[in-house]
Structures are given as structure tokens and as C-alpha cells.
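Duplicate of #3305? Posting structure anyway:
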């Protein structure tokens, strides 16, 4: 049973890497984003937060840091800043695993909305401290709103298509420990 759980752990970690690669390549494609157009959601952030809330044992901090740092480098953002903010947000969620296990979806959505807003504000705050140029506040908040609205679709794909569920009471992880 532990071997099956260990294989499932690495299967979902591999799936996360593949999803991240597809999303980053899709963002790099010139798909006709005209200046001034509405910003799209940060789907990788939605997947990361949804998977962290559902199965924190599948989402290792080193894996999240590696994926988001690669995204930083490929999208030519300041290396490590977005990575640090996202890893801090995921570790905040990981520390509340026992609390979030019993949340209904509307409560989970509110928690994720607050987390996404906090992540965006922390990122903008760090940019402000360093006096780096940044997009207008309204534009950044429109992307956060788009991400918040995209979150239910990401959860639906994760649960219905990929069969990623919250751990049941008494379930063990890949190392035989109770979750």
C-alpha cells in the first residue's frame, strides 16, 4: 500500500511539472495580447494553491520553488521575488492543513481569494520598496480578480479530471504517516 502511495505521489508531482510547463509555454506564445487588453488569470498560481490545499504532501516546497523560479526566469521577472512570495503563501496554507480539510468550497474560495490578494500585494510592496517599475494597481488587481474567478475551474479540473481529493481522516501519506 505504501508503494502505491509513493508511486501516486510521484505521479502527481510529475503531472504538476507537466501542467506548469504547458502553462508557461502558453504564456510565452504570442497569442495577440494587445497593449491595454484585460489581463488573464495566473493559472499556475491557481493550480499551485488548489493542489496545496487538497494534497500538501504532493507539493514539496523545493518543487514549487523550482517551478516558479523557472517561470520567473522565462517570463523575465526579477528572479526569486515571485518565487519567495508564492512559497511563503503555500507554506502558510500547509501550516493550516488540519483547518482547511473541513472547509466547504465557498469558504475555501474565500480563503484562496484572500491568499491571492495577499500574494499580489506583497509582490507589489516588494517592488515598491526597490523602486522598480510596475504595472498600474488596477491592472494588477484585475489579474487577481481573473485568477480568483478562474480558481473554481482549476479545482473542478483537479478533482473531476485528475482525481485529486482532500485526504480523508486516517489516510496515510507515502511514508506511512497519518495525515
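Output from current build:
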Amino acid at each position: 500500500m505504501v508503494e502505491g502511495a509513493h508511486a501516486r505521489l510521484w505521479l502527481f508531482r510529475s503531472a504538476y511539472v507537466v501542467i506548469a510547463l504547458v502553462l508557461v509555454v502558453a504564456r510565452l506564445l504570442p497569442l495577440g495580447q494587445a497593449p491595454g487588453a484585460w489581463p488573464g488569470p495566473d493559472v499556475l498560481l491557481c493550480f499551485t494553491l488548489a493542489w496545496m490545499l487538497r494534497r500538501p504532501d504532493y507539493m514539496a516546497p523545493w518543487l514549487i520553488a523550482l517551478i516558479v523560479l523557472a517561470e520567473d526566469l522565462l517570463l523575465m521577472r526579477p528572479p526569486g521575488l515571485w518565487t519567495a512570495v508564492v512559497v511563503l503563501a503555500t507554506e502558510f496554507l500547509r501550516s493550516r492543513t488540519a483547518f482547511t480539510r473541513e472547509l466547504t468550497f465557498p469558504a475555501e474560495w474565500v480563503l484562496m481569494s484572500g491568499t491571492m490578494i495577499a500574494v499580489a500585494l506583497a509582490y507589489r510592496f516588494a517592488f515598491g520598496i526597490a523602486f522598480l517599475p510596475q504595472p498600474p494597481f488596477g491592472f494588477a488587481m484585475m489579474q487577481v480578480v481573473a485568477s480568483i474567478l478562474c480558481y473554481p475551474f482549476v479545482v473542478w479540473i483537479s478533482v473531476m479530471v485528475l482525481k485529486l481529493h482532500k485526504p480523508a481522516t486516517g489516510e496515510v501519506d507515502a511514508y506511512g504517516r497519518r495525515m
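Confirmed duplicate; merging threads. The chain has seven helices and no strands. The chain has one domain: 2-30+41-161.
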